[in-house]
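User: My instructor asked us to take a sequence, write out its structure as tokens, and then describe one feature of it. I'm not sure where to start. Here is the sequence I was given:
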Amino acid sequence: MGVTMTAPTHIPVLLKEAVEALAVQPGGRYIDCTIGSGGHGAAILEQSSPGGQLLGIDADPEAIKIAKASLEAYSGSVLLINENFVNLQAICIKYDFFPVHGIFFDLGLSSLQLDGNGRGFSFQYDAPLDMRLSPNQKVTAADIINTYSETELVYVIKTYGEESHSHRIVRHIMGERPIKTTLQLAQVIERAVRGRRGRLHPATKTFQALRIAVNHELGHLEAALKQAIDLLGFGGKLVVISYQSLEDRIVKQFMRRQAGDCICPPGTPICTCGHKASLRLITKKVVTPSPAEVQLNPRSRSAKLRAAERIIASDEQYRVVEKLNRSIGTEARGWRKPALAKKLRRTFLALQIDSFADAAGGRFEM
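Assistant: Let's start with the prediction itself. The structure tokens for your sequence are:
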């Protein structure tokens, strides 16, 4: 990318609230699906010691390098994987890291991505229009800006950026193509909405839309949330921090749907879905940063935290086992499928027994 990154000054958002929602305990196993600079991960490891373990995932290889340095003191307790969390279940099966006590997502960009790293995430620095979290991805923001049709561009900017001036912006973009840099695009947008500026910079929503489209963020989030359910042990916590309304809507609707039984369309006389609740909502209302935190870290102002707890019925144990078993190929880290199924059955049988102890006031251990 042409830019060498040094230690970031990223401040973890809602750090205390996230650790509390995860109910981090000594000896627990946790997954940070967006390890970033390792701020939340360090707090989880500190709180879970002695014996705690953390699996840290990030699609950005530079984030993995920085997290490795920042978490060096916990090197024996942390496993860092350069992957997209859309492959969450496959990663956990490959590294024998399930079931777990908690899964955490921090969906915001970190300072290492925003502060002039040469990949074009921010319009405050001149850089190529890239916006890929991983260099292995093929489509860049420049590809979208310069090759999509007018109709396609309007859809991207209006849908993913919730930009009310999408048609006007796209008409200006079409007249200025090719557009190759962040500042060039920002200037085109400023000219397009001249006299219509609000509290946000006029390029904010378009840049958000491009980043989401380049990295398939919304689809990947939905897929990862579904996978997280089967990786959590009984009583395990799912905690998500989002920063924009599209992500928060996906998280809120997912948690509410999984916290209810019947999900048949309203008005259906008899339930035919057979859906059973798999989560219990911990945060009835969304958690947001305090005024003091926002003052200290303005980038936290839009953060929203939601959390839920895994519940599991006794007749669901083997369904989860078979689902995980069918989801992999004929081998994973040397296991044959029958052997893995046997291992999983033992694990979830133990969780079923532990659920009775938990109901009696105990805590589960793995």
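For the description part of your assignment, you could build on this observation: Residues 1-8, 329-337, 352-366 have pLDDT under 50 and may be disordered. Try explaining in your own words what that tells you about the chain.
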